[in-house]
Design brief:
There is one protein chain. With 349 residues, the chain is an alpha+beta fold. The protein has one domain: Jelly Rolls, CATH 2.60.120.330. The chain is built from ten helices and 14 strands. The protein has an eight-stranded mixed beta sheet with strand order 1-2-10-7-12-5-4-3. It has a four-stranded antiparallel beta sheet with strand order 6-11-8-9, with no helix packed on it. Helix 2 packs across helix 6 and helix 3 packs across helix 6. It binds 2-oxoglutaric acid (AKG) and fe (ii) ion (FE2). Fe (ii) ion binds next to loops. Belongs to the iron/ascorbate-dependent oxidoreductase family. GA3OX subfamily. Keywords: Dioxygenase, Iron, Metal-binding, Oxidoreductase. Its EC number is 1.14.11.15.
Length: 349
């Protein structure tokens, strides 16, 4: 089966954009990882907001999936923020905790062991820096591990005799996340009045899904470092579990960088470029980034959900002129891998 990995094949990266720094023994921030963030940028001078902003308009909405009105609340959140927090999402707490623990185990391994699963140039899966690294002048304070389909190929390299537990948990997690993503997608497509014919793929087995484990080590100079640089996700929806350490921020026009405070038993959902395209820009794709901190390590687990790679994304059923030309999922992934922030404007009509 063709998977998302295909879209990265023509886009080979230099090894310096793949091999992470060995963060374990650094007394200070190397120049290669220094960002010139102004104090205001870091502290986001627009936050807290004006007095006339109430708390509910100053942070992404919290939505209860059991709420009978959930679909409309989700639609509103996608229109205004491109993101929301989700409770009563149905993913067993023990499973989330288990995957979090696996991520902690993985990233605390000695560098040499992690490098056995290094992502190869032109590949999408394995251990390494963020895929967006080449588009920024400085490196990020981050290590990642990307999984598409079964994690066993890479897991066997890291733990030759002991990979099964990791694989079982990740596969269970992927299955549960897929089910949740399907529920959200059905609601979004219903709100967009997408035809039955164009919705048939939802619930099928050839969707494009990926799991991304992220690690942000504690950092000697957090104000001059960046965990993950500003980006939008190449997905329809991204469902994120973050540990209880702040860092994730979403950019909101007129407000600046807004923190997404971790809440126990709550997942963060954001819309990605693909839903932005399908909705003819009615749903935002949230620009987000991650800051780091001095004493606490931060972990997150992202699940990216997208239609099958040959699915044609086109702003259908819209009441105004299409703002994007039709592209397949695979074509869009490959444009994004090569052109990053320009991808949406490159397919604009
Ligand atoms: O670590 C986070 O909170 C966000 C991760 C993220 O944005 C990503 O993996 O695309
Ligand atoms: Fe992201």
């Amino acid at each position: 089966m063709e998977t998302l990995s295909e879209a990265y094949k023509e886009h080979t990266l230099h090894l310096r954009h793949i091999i992470p720094l060995d963060f374990s023994s650094l007394p200070s921030l190397p120049d290669s990882h220094a960002w010139s963030l102004s104090n205001d940028d870091y502290n986001n001078n627009t936050f807290p907001f004006n007095d006339d902003d109430d708390a509910s308009s100053s942070s992404i909405p919290m939505i209860d999936l059991m709420d009978p009105n959930a679909m409309h609340l989700i639609g509103h959140a996608c229109e205004t923020w491109g993101a929301f927090q989700l409770k009563n999402h149905g993913i067993p707490f023990g499973l989330i905790e288990g995957v979090e623990q696996e991520a902690k185990n993985l990233f605390s391994l000695p560098t040499q062991q992690k490098l056995k699963a290094l992502r190869s140039p032109g590949a999408a899966t394995g251990y390494g820096r963020a895929q967006i690294s080449p588009f920024f002048p400085s490196f990020m304070w981050h290590e990642g591990f990307t999984i598409i389909g079964s994690p066993s190929h890479h897991a066997k390299k890291i733990w030759p005799t002991d990979f099964q537990h990791f694989c079982d948990l990740i596969e269970k997690y992927e299955k549960q996340m897929k089910i949740l993503a399907e529920r959200l997608t059905k609601m979004a497509l219903e709100l967009l009045e997408i035809s039955e014919e164009k919705r048939k793929w939802v619930g099928g087995n050839n969707i494009s899904g990926a799991v991304q484990l992220n690690f942000y080590p504690s950092c000697p100079e957090p104000k001059r470092a960046m965990g993950l640089a500003p980006h939008t996700d190449t997905s329809l929806f991204t469902i994120l579990h973050q540990t209880q350490t702040t860092g994730l921020q979403i950019f909101k026009e007129g407000k600046g960088w807004v923190p997404v405070h971790p809440n126990p038993n709550t997942l963060v959902v954001n819309t990605g470029d693909l839903l932005h395209i399908m909705s003819n820009a009615r749903f935002r794709c949230a620009l987000h980034r991650v800051t780091v901190n001095r004493s606490r390590k931060r972990y997150s687990v992202a699940y990216f959900y997208s239609p099958p790679i040959d699915y044609v994304l086109s702003p259908l059923n819209v009441h105004s002129a299409a703002r994007f030309r039709a592209v397949t999922v695979k074509e869009y992934f490959s444009i994004k891998a090569k052109k990053f922030g320009e991808a949406l404007s490159l397919i604009s009509t």
